[in-house]
């Protein structure tokens, strides 16, 4: 069958793809890495895969659904019928995400690292010295040490090429490699944080403990939907699980390769990786059936840490490298929460501490008097710009700050491009500002014809009959179309913030029952990259963190990855993570009669301060 040629214009660059007739256009763009994926799993609902057709032949599955009012088409609703030229929005092709570096070894590198490299000079064999090559090196590094059989085929050549001056690579109690010469300065590992929406990969120097490079990428699983339940549904068969696992591993592998290339490093010098994620992400990474996570009583296949070889899963590291998937706590509280607990050392804190990792699944930990409770709330992806009409990730062209001042709307936009949409921090800013100036009531309803506001004219009924507030009129800031915040967008934020707030209140009530009194929250750690950009005052104004003052909120960055990094560098820390997974008490919100009532109450916004 003749292949069709699809030319894609994205961000001013032209990309040439080949596709078979009948192929879904969205699939072609996803396979080429030119589009992040959809929130609706390709059902033609979310509108995030829209493209402009400049020329050529595309065949709609459903004419009424495929073509949007502005003339663009949904790429998940059209098939390739011939050669074509399409354009996607600037920034939509940039699937790599910026993630911040962090410091792992604030008090020096641990001495109990799982990977050790030992340079040894061996006596060359003679007629009098008949030790085998393997015995010769084991005599130096520990004669009772286990060894990987994979090193045997090349061992004779390596020893003689290097004139018996070699580096032994030791993984705990096992000799996994013998390298020619002194390679002690080449010793690396990876941290992998698999989020529902974004995957973050970090390159670590195991000698110094320094985080050298980091890269974020959109989770390739997003083609199946934006939340864990759609992913679980998509993983219903062994074949589909293999496909999802391969997509995930391939995405991580490509990020690892890019990070190694940045430093001109060789994959065989990467010896260990630690992986964290929510329980569903851990299952899918390992190819494990997650079906029981979706139905009561939400039992995972495993909770304990899983260790496997890099060669078994297909990661670009030394074939004998160890990949540790850290332990989960329960069906909805995963190893990422273990990582946060490790980074914050909750069990050592005085008073009452809370940590919140805001994302598609909002993980909440509460620690007091040596005890730790944890829960997970289905906040949804609104905080990451998803399910929002003009929502987008925090990338080039995203509105991240909003200020309403008299008759002006002041927007903070990421990068130098004109605004194209709004990300999570901008969404919180915008809603808090509308509430502050009286254009939004406590129920979350936009106020039309507000008599005392010069901005009231920006509140209108949109083309679909839904109320909206105009953040920027077309052309006002170089933007192509009106940029709006709709009544539905506000409701999505209410649903998300209510889930987080109700989860916090449930854990607080648990402490109240134990302490026989209302707990005083001493600090709230805000985990995740999102927390670094969140305006704490505005989050408090929306009731996201009930009863907690803004000055008690401490952003701590990607604490899940930091905790995973501690386990990468220290056997003791890894054992601590294993203990934490059994020590933390999970609170299953679906079993709580009070959660729904608290959630409904938390939908409302607090009264603005006078």
Shape: globular
- Which range best describes the helical content: under 10%, 10-25%, 25-40%, 40-55%, 55-70% or over 70%? 25-40%
If you average the pLDDT, what whole number results? 88
What is the topology, as strand order, of the major beta sheet? Answer: 6-13-12-11-14-16-15
| Number of continuous helical runs | 16
**% residues in beta strands:** 25-35%
Gap from first CA to last CA: 70 Å
The assigned structural class equals: alpha/beta
Low-confidence stretches: 91-97
> Gyration radius, to the nearest Å?
27 Å
Specify the biggest β-sheet. 7 strands, mixed
Subunit organisation of the chains: single chain
Number of strands: 28
| Tally of domains | 3
InterPro entries: 2Fe-2S_ferredoxin-like_sf, 2Fe-2S_ferredoxin-type, Beta-grasp_dom_sf, Corrinoid_activation_enz, Raco-like_middle, Raco-like_middle_sf, RACo_C, RACo_linker
Organism: Desulfobulbus oralis
Domain 2Fe-2S ferredoxin-type: 4-92
GO molecular function: iron-sulfur cluster binding
Topology at a glance:
Blueprint: E1 3-10, E2 13-20, H1 25-31, E3 50-60, H2 63-66, E4 73-74, E5 78-88, E6 96-97, E7 115-121, H3 133-141, E8 146-147, H4 155-161, E9 165-171, E10 174-180, E11 188-194, E12 198-205, E13 211-218, H5 228-234, H6 238-262, E14 270-277, H7 279-286, E15 306-309, H8 310-313, E16 322-325, H9 335-344, E17 352-357, E18 362-368, E19 371-377, E20 398-405, E21 408-413, E22 421-422, H10 424-436, E23 459-461, E24 467-472, E25 483-486, H11 487-515, E26 521-527, H12 529-533, H13 536-541, E27 553-557, H14 559-569, H15 571-583, E28 585-586, H16 593-602
Parallel strand pairs: 1-5, 8-10, 11-14, 14-16, 17-26, 19-28, 20-22, 26-27
Antiparallel strand pairs: 1-2, 3-4, 3-5, 6-13, 7-9, 9-10, 11-12, 12-13, 15-16, 17-18, 18-19, 20-21, 23-24, 24-25
Helix pairs in contact: 9-14, 9-15, 11-16, 14-15
